[in-house]
Write a structure and sequence with these properties.
Elements: H1 2-6, H2 9-27, E1 33-41, E2 50-58, E3 61-67, E4 78-81, E5 86-89, E6 91-96, H3 111-123, E7 126-131, H4 137-144, E8 155-158, H5 168-181, E9 186-190, H6 202-214, E10 219-223, H7 226-235, E11 239-240, H8 251-259, E12 263-264, H9 268-275, H10 287-290, H11 295-301, H12 304-311, H13 314-335, H14 355-366, H15 371-377, H16 380-385, E13 402-405, E14 419-424, E15 427-428
Parallel strand pairs: 1-4, 1-5, 6-7, 7-8, 9-10, 10-11, 11-12
Antiparallel strand pairs: 1-2, 2-3, 5-13, 13-14, 14-15
This protein binds zinc ion (ZN).
Residues 95, 97, 132-133, 345 line the site of zinc ion.
């Protein structure tokens, strides 16, 4: 009552006006309806691209989608003329990280930095990321806060801390601790880092998977070797988070991975990041990269000492060889009908969030996949592989997370870079 007396008549009138007509335009189009009209639609499913489509988003979610003429645009909808353009779902990165990296240093795990990174992913069209490890309370809180219609940054799903340990008991405790915090996945590394560190023992892997499954959580595995990939599949793992990089994936592996419909995330760009800075990479002159990167980082990466260190690194050489094997495996597994999900393992220093997703998609095409298959692997399939049901495809009921492109990426995957705008829950991501 007191407040009402303090509000002058002009202000009361203005507030009434805003409530009736102006509110939607102030807080974002998703308060009403938003319609994209005329675009070629790549919806992230197995469907072929649909020309001259209409997509209606209401309160952040897709209400209707289909060919023009079959979809009614609601009265009062904000209409975006997308004729001659292409719309695809927001990109889903099935192996990323959101963490403490700032510039080329780590140790900056805080809400402000995480939010900055999720904005960066989103501006590159990556609207959902599975952060597979290194997640702390602030990351969980951002995950919890993203199920509302006002969101305008990338969604994040979290694994908590990477589970490691030398006893069954400690492994089970760590799984429980992550589960108690509300983790979406359990992440484990089964790797000896090119022979330089001990690998987790099979009995511990078994205990970890058993405990995760008791808590109804999927297990995502970092690995390198074909034998380990077979082992973890038999043990019940749910996601292969890196490429097999020592040997060609054989029929035994293909049978195992397909029998349980486990997804495989190649993370080819992770390999690239281990050796590419031995000299100036070609992408350092790509405007699509330069528009977001801090120039100081490039200078630091191009210092002669740093370049020669990488050039003379034995592990860089080994990962470079591993990349050749990894690319062959992408082709072999894709041809065999294994579900591949796009992922980059970005987040650590010099693995550039957002930009590397586009590089990864290009590399998957270069490895032998069709552009449309790569788009599916980067949208609908990736969402399914990380168990996020309401993103990844542009179908009724899903979140209105999409990318508007000036060129069609089904014709040339590099066209994923022709971003004109990105929407999350029907909200335009700020430039
Ligand atoms: Zn990772």
């Amino acid at each position: 009552m007191k407040l009402r007396l303090l509000v002058p008549v002009w202000l009361a009138s203005f507030m009434l006006y805003m409530a009736l007509v102006g509110f939607a335009s102030l807080v974002g189009a998703n308060e009403g309806s938003l319609a994209f009209v005329g675009a070629t639609l790549i919806d992230g499913t197995d469907a072929e691209p649909l020309e001259d489509s209409v997509i209606v988003i209401t309160h952040g979610r897709i209400r209707t989608v289909g060919p023009r003429g079959s979809v009614t645009v609601p009265d009062g909808a904000v209409v975006i003329d997308a004729s001659g353009k292409t719309i695809m779902p927001g990109i889903v990165n099935a192996h990323a990280h959101v963490g403490g990296t700032l510039g080329l240093s780590t140790g900056h795990y805080n809400t402000e930095n995480l939010t900055r990174q999720l904005g960066l992913y989103a501006r590159y069209g990556v609207t959902t990321v599975a952060s597979l490890g290194g997640d702390e309370a602030q990351g969980f809180a951002l995950r919890d806060g993203q199920f509302d219609a006002g969101l305008n940054r990338a969604r994040v799903f979290v694994a908590g801390s990477v589970v490691a340990g030398s006893t069954e008991e400690s492994v089970r405790e760590q799984v429980n601790s992550n589960a108690d915090q509300g983790a979406n996945f359990i992440k484990v590394r089964v790797d000896d880092n090119l022979g330089r560190s001990p690998k987790m023992a099979p009995s511990l892997i078994d205990a970890l998977i058993d405990q995760a499954h008791q808590r109804r959580l999927p297990v995502a595995v970092h690995l390198f070797y074909l034998d380990d990939a077979k082992y973890i599949l038999r043990a019940g793992a749910d996601l292969i988070a890196h490429s097999i990089r020592d040997l060609a994936a054989d029929q035994e592996f293909i049978d195992l991975v397909k029998a349980r419909d486990v997804c495989y995330v190649p993370t080819l760009t992770r390999e690239v990041s281990t050796f590419i800075y031995e000299s100036e990479p070609a992408f350092f002159s790509d405007p699509f990269f330069l528009k977001e990167v801090d120039g100081g980082i490039l200078e630091e990466l191009m210092t002669p000492e740093r370049q020669s260190q990488m050039r003379n690194s034995a592990s860089a050489a080994a990962y470079k060889e591993g990349l050749v094997v990894a690319k062959d495996n992408v082709k072999r597994l894709s041809d065999s009908g294994v579900r591949l999900a796009m992922g980059t393992d970005t987040g650590p220093p010099a693995r550039f969030q957002g930009y590397f997703s586009h590089m990864e998609m290009q590399m998957m095409v270069d490895a032998g996949m069709s552009p449309l298959d790569v788009i599916r692997s980067s949208t609908g399939i990736a969402a399914d592989c990380i168990n996020v049901g309401d993103v990844g495809t542009l179908e009724p009921g899903k979140w209105g997370d999409l990318v508007l492109l000036s060129e069609n990426p089904a014709e040339n995957i590099a066209n994923t870079k022709s971003i004109e705008g990105v929407w999350v829950a029907g909200n335009r991501v700020p430039d």
